[in-house]
Design goal:
Blueprint: H1 4-7, H2 15-40, H3 48-136, E1 156-161, E2 164-170, E3 173-176, H4 181-197, H5 215-223, E4 237-240, E5 246-249, H6 255-260, E6 264-266, H7 268-271
Antiparallel strand pairs: 1-2, 2-3, 4-5, 4-6
Length: 274
């Protein structure tokens, strides 16, 4: 069983009550002093009992001051204890669920990042499979001296580097292998910067990552993966240099520029491998 006294609310006594008791005691003492002064001035209407009675009231008023002060201290401590109890209950209630909340958010982030990584892996494997099918069908590797692969092979080709396949090409569209790590780091960098601007330390995610890209630019970059390439203007002027390197200019080159660059003027038809 709980102690009935524990359920009782503490009496609310404040510093204002102490000041009121102090004022009353001062007034009682002032009355005693006034009676004494009247006797000394020869006022015979003030009797001994009147003075003694006022002195008793004054002494009692002073005791009430101390009693009120002690009650105020007990009341203040009781309110402090009640506030501490409430604070502890609030902290424990929050702490009981905070771990589950963090775990939920982390699982959601893990799921999204896993989907991103798996999606990128499957996409890259698909590109490699397309390249293998091109090779099996006799499609040659990309010829950098032409803008578009040969129509003989349906404008299909693939590009390689010293590390292996780099991607495939369909007309002017180049579909390259992608590593999504740069996008994740870019996003984290954005979030770090934005959190710092809001006064929330970006270290909750990672160490500061300087990033100059905007969120719109980042997502625009991601959404444009595998999108058709920008239409290449068939106008202008085309030249082929050493090793078959292709050059395009808006204005025709001078004879001196052509000679200095060891270039040969070619037609747009040849440049586009028509």
């Amino acid at each position: 069983m709980t102690d009935p006294q524990e359920d009782e609310k503490p009496e609310l006594v404040t510093d204002a009550d102490v000041r009121a008791a102090e004022k009353a005691a001062n007034e009682a003492e002032a009355l005693v002093a006034a009676l004494e002064e009247a006797i000394m001035d020869g006022d015979e209407t003030v009797g001994e009992e009147q003075v003694l009675e006022q002195e008793k009231l004054s002494r009692f008023a002073r005791l009430r001051v101390e009693a009120t002060r002690r009650k105020a201290e007990r009341s203040k401590e009781a309110r402090r204890q009640a506030a501490l109890t409430e604070l502890r209950a609030e902290i424990e209630s929050f702490a009981d669920g905070s771990g589950k909340t963090f775990a939920k958010h982390l699982r959601e982030a893990e799921k999204a990042l896993t989907a991103l990584a798996v999606g990128a892996y499957e996409r890259n494997e698909q590109i490699k499979a397309w390249k293998s099918r091109m090779v099996a069908l006799g499609v040659p590797a990309k010829n950098p001296t032409f803008i578009v692969p040969s129509k003989e092979h349906k404008e299909l080709s693939y590009a390689e580097s010293g590390y292996g396949i780099r991607g495939v090409q369909v007309g002017t569209r180049e579909i390259e292998l992608r590593d999504t790590g740069m996008f994740v780091q870019g996003l984290i960098g954005l979030l770090v910067r934005e959190l710092n601007e809001r006064g929330v330390s970006g270290h909750y995610l990672t160490a500061d990552v300087p990033v100059s890209i905007t969120r719109e630019q980042l997502y625009d970059m991601v959404q444009k993966i595998d999108a058709p390439g920008k239409e290449i203007d068939r106008g202008g002027h085309f030249y082929r240099g050493d090793g078959g390197v292709l050059h395009r200019t808006d204005k025709p080159m001078t004879e001196d520029q052509i000679k200095t660059g060891n270039l040969r003027k070619i037609s747009a038809k040849e440049a586009f491998n028509d």
